[in-house]
């Protein structure tokens, strides 16, 4: 009985942590995609490094916005589930 209770707690902790595991990867991917998009545009329009910097900044802003929005949604959902 005690072993089963520990397994349930262990599974619950992984389930709660799983909601947050992909957020860091998503943030990094957003920034990198925008950086490479800015780099590609710079090569097309010969404006180095202006567009790399601009799109990297926009990627960071969009990534952090999405990160914060997702964390707040998860936390609100957990409040209502309890």
Write the layout of secondary structure elements.
Blueprint: H1 2-21, H2 23-45, H3 50-81
Helix pairs in contact: 2-3
Task: Describe, in plain words, how this protein is organized in 3D.
There is one protein chain. The protein has helices spanning 2-21, 23-45, 50-81. The chain has one domain. Helix 2 (23-45) packs antiparallel against helix 3. With 82 residues, it is mainly α. Helices cover 91% and strands 0% of the residues. The model has no long low-confidence stretch (mean pLDDT 88).
- End-to-end distance, in Å? 24 Å
Name the shape in a single word.
elongated
* Radius of gyration (Å): 20 Å
Strand tally, please? 0
Average the pLDDT over all residues and give the rounded result: 88
For the biggest sheet, the summary is: none
Number of alpha- plus pi-helical segments: 3
Range of strand content: under 5%
Q: How many domains make up the coordinates? A: 1
Write down the secondary-structure element order.
HHH
Question: What portion of residues is helical?
Answer: over 70%
Could you name the ranges where pLDDT drops below 50 across 5 or more consecutive residues?
none
Helices and strands: which structural class? mainly alpha
Would you summarize the structure shown here?
The protein has about 80 residues and is mainly α. The chain is built from three helices and no strands.
Salient structural properties:
82 residues; mainly alpha; 91% helix; 0% strand
